[in-house]
């Protein structure tokens, strides 16, 4: 049975795989399926529940980031948010909001926002 998933496009699978392998490892996500141009990630690499696919577009056109599109991941601690962000910056990501409190979302909303090597926006949030 197919789990709920989202697919983000990539123009360079090697760069994207290095980026997501490093970033998602900070929250215990791992790849559970890999074939040319495509890689799937899930919690603990189990392939259960929500899955993130990083893929070269099927139509062979360039991947582009969606305006207003963002994938958010949950962190258990502020340290996980910091580690996720640091891994993103060290592996080809770009800053779109350094780790910190975002009180306009709630008193405990600690988050970071970044772009992957293709320009897709991702977030990591701890709301504790």
Per DSSP E runs of 2 or more residues, the count of β-strands stands at 9
What class do helices, strands and sheet pairing give? alpha+beta
How many structural domains in the coordinates?
A: 1
Give the N-to-C terminal Cα separation.
Answer: 33 Å
- What form results from the Cα inertia axes? globular
What percent strand? Answer: 35-45%
Q: Count of DSSP helices? A: 2
What CATH calls the topology is 2,3-Dihydroxybiphenyl 1,2-Dioxygenase, domain 1
CATH architectural label: Roll
Order of helices and strands: EHEEEEHEEEE
Q: Tell me the Rg in angstroms.
A: 14 Å
**Main sheet?**
5 strands, mixed
Average pLDDT value? Answer: 96
Low-confidence segments, given as residue ranges, are none
Mind telling me the CATH superfamily name?
2,3-Dihydroxybiphenyl 1,2-Dioxygenase, domain 1
Q: What is the CATH level 1 assignment?
A: Alpha Beta
Helix share of residues? 10-25%
Describe the structure.
The chain has 128 residues and is an alpha+beta fold. It has a single domain (5-57, 70-127), classed as 2,3-Dihydroxybiphenyl 1,2-Dioxygenase, domain 1, CATH 3.10.180. Helices cover 20% and strands 36% of the residues. The protein has two helices and nine strands. It has helices spanning 13-25, 78-90, and strands at residues 5-9, 29-35, 38-43, 51-55, 70-74, 94-95, 100-101, 109-115, 121-127. Strands 5, 6, 7, 8 and 9 form a five-stranded mixed β-sheet that branches. α1 runs antiparallel to α2 (78-90). The N and C termini lie far apart (33 Å).
């Amino acid at each position: 049975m197919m789990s709920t998933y989202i697919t983000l496009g990539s123009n360079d699978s090697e760069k994207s795989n290095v980026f997501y392998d490093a970033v998602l490892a900070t929250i215990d996500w791992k790849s559970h399926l890999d074939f040319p141009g495509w890689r799937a990630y899930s919690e603990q690499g189990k392939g259960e529940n929500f899955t993130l696919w990083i893929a070269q577009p099927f139509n062979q056109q360039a991947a582009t980031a969606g305006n207003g599109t963002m994938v958010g991941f949950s962190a258990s601690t502020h340290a996980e948010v910091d580690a996720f962000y640091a891994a993103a910056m060290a592996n080809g990501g770009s800053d779109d909001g350094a780790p910190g409190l975002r009180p306009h979302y709630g008193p405990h909303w600690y988050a970071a926002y970044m772009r992957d090597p293709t320009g897709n926006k991702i977030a990591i949030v701890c709301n504790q």
